[in-house]
Write a structure and sequence with these properties.
The protein has 396 residues and is an alpha/beta fold. It has 14 helices and 15 strands. The strands form three sheets. A seven-stranded mixed β-sheet has the order 4-10-9-8-7-5-6, with helices on both faces. A hairpin with a 4-residue loop joins β2 and β3. The longest helix has 27 residues.
Length: 396
């Protein structure tokens, strides 16, 4: 592909060139249609070419594209009102940026300034981004190794292990950061009461709790926020991905008393809160609420999970099925690259999560027919792979 001549080898790429999309589907340059379970890594929350989104962007384009946050703008004001309306209790202030990593970077700075402590506890398996601050609290050594030294005073507790977390807390611990559902690591859910117990510890020891809902938020799991499944509210919450329907945007939701400790000029973003992304964000929030996409994610997610568990009963290559709503992981017993390539041939785009986990992050507009199609294709892919592996064993 000519693109590789200029962009290097930074991304794991597959042999397909996407030209356009509509709803749950994308189409390549040869006119072949695919069911999109990648969704731009969870970005296409309300589907491709959503009419409300396109109209909102088009209308804003005719007005103005960029207004720096040193000036006021009504589109931005409307977005801030919309996001705060759906935010967890007490998270009434918002810092706008351009990506998930930027949202996390802001959260780190706000927490440090407010707590006056540099110690941060993240989780094993955590993924929070690849900029230096976000990378420092990302666990995987494959991302970290080449860029050390990173931030000091960062430690990693075992996910779902309260005793491990408590053993790492010291007088310098000011922040704990958690993904309510670990996405990049393979769709791992917290144990019962884990998040609530972490919240209790933070309250008792005056530690700030940050939730990274960049992948799990905005209805993805069948609740507006994944942490709602476990009745837990953080002090700071990081958002991005689908928040603007495909345009770059990050948001750091924060308690008013925390954000008020940041002085003018201590943190800012040239493009953060630009009217075009805010117009898109308004359309996304309005679509999620008015079209009941949260309940749809729950309903169709349950149907998809049930179907996948049925497939597990028939295919021995499947190790485990995990997920909430339309955030699903299929853990296999071997490298999944060939299955992803076969999926492309069969008109299904699948996302990987590590070497042996298929991740499904389809748009929240998924319907029953889409679910049936996905399950039928996966059934074919798993059967083909089992047949291929059995033939290999017989030929040894």
């Amino acid at each position: 592909m000519n693109e590789d001549r200029f962009s290097g080898t930074l991304y794991q790429k597959f042999p397909i060139t996407i030209e356009k999309g509509n709803g749950i589907n994308v189409v390549d340059t040869n006119g072949k249609k695919y069911i999109d379970c990648i969704g731009g890594y969870g970005v296409a929350l309300i589907g491709h070419s959503n009419k409300r989104l396109l109209n909102s962007i088009t209308e804003q384009l005719t007005k103005i594209i960029t207004v720096h946050s040193s000036l006021y703008n009504k589109t931005r004001e409307k977005f801030l009102e919309n996001i705060v309306k759906i935010s967890p209790k007490k998270l009434s202030n918002v810092y706008l940026s351009n990506s998930g990593s930027e949202s996390v970077e802001a959260a780190i700075k706000f927490a440090r300034k407010f707590s006056k402590k540099t110690g941060i506890i993240s989780m094993t398996g955590a993924y929070h981004g690849k900029t230096i601050g976000a990378l420092s609290i990302t666990h995987s050594s494959k991302y970290r190794l080449s860029f050390k030294p990173l931030l000091k005073d960062v430690s990693f507790a075992k996910f779902n292990d309260i005793e491990s977390l408590q053993s790492l807390i010291n007088d310098n611990t000011g922040t704990i950061i958690i993904e309510p559902i670990q996405g990049e690591n393979g769709i791992y859910l917290p144990n019962y009461k884990f998040l609530e117990n972490v919240r209790k510890i933070c309250d008792e020891l005056n530690i700030l709790l940050i939730f990274d809902e960049i992948q799990s938020g905005l209805g993805r799991t069948g609740k507006m926020w994944a942490a709602e499944h476990w009745n837990t509210i953080p002090d700071i919450m990081c958002l991005a991905k689908g928040i603007a329907g495909g345009l770059p945007m990050g948001a750091t939701l924060v308690r008013q008393d925390i954000l008020s400790c940041i002085k003018k000029g201590e943190h800012s973003s040239t493009f953060g809160g630009n009217p075009l992304s805010c117009a898109a964000g308004n359309a996304v929030i309005e679509t999620i609420i008015e079209e009941n996409l949260i309940s749809n994610a729950q309903k169709e997610g349950e149907l998809l999970l049930t179907g996948l568990k049925d497939l597990k009963m028939r295919h021995t290559i499947i190790r485990e099925i995990r997920g909430k709503g339309l955030m699903i992981g299929i853990e296999l017993k071997f490298d999944i690259k060939q299955i992803i390539l076969d999926g492309i041939k069969h008109g299904l785009l699948l996302l990987y999560s590590g070497r042996n986990i298929i991740r499904l992050l389809p748009p929240l507009i998924l319907n029953k027919d889409n679910v049936i199609s996905i399950l039928n294709i996966l059934d074919i892919l798993f059967a083909r792979e089992e047949k291929r592996r059995n033939a290999q064993r017989q030929n040894r």
